[in-house]
Amino acid sequence: MIGKNENTMSEKAYLEMIISERIGFWVSQEKPEGEDPVSDRGEGIIRELPEEKRSQMEAYVRKLVEISAGHEKYIYLKGIEDGIRLMSRIEKMREG
Fold first, then answer.
1. Residue-wise DSSP of the chain
2. Handedness of CA 53, 58, 62, 68 (dihedral sign)
3. Distance (Å, rounded) from C-alpha 76 to C-alpha 83?
4. For residue 90, how many other CB atoms are within 10 A of its CB?
């Protein structure tokens, strides 16, 4: 038997997965603007670092990506909230 907390966590994980998939879908729809010389140069610099510094820098970049993903999720959810609020206002205007 699944307890209430276990069931809630699985629902939360499911919602997280849906949100991640939708964000991934929209990000993949962006058209690349070509090569990014700044990113290319940064990757080259990281590859040239000694192993210890390279692993520290890679950990730092991973953390920045993780933080950015959290911001994307927040903005996505706020956009959904705004859309629902706007639809509600439009519906009220139609009614009255």
1. ---HHHHHHHHHHHHHHHHHHHHHHHHHTSPP-S--HHHHHHHHHHHHS-HHHHHHHHHHHHHHHHHHHHHHHHHHHHHHHHHHHHHHHHHHHHH-
2. positive
3. 11
4. 10
| pLDDT higher than threshold 50 for residue 1 | no
Cβ distance 57 to 49 under 8 Å? Answer: yes
What's the residue count for the chain? 96
> Which token pair is 1?
């038997």
pLDDT digit string, tens, across residues 19-60: 888 888 887 887 666 677 888 898 999 999 999 999 999 999
d(CA 18, CA 31): 23
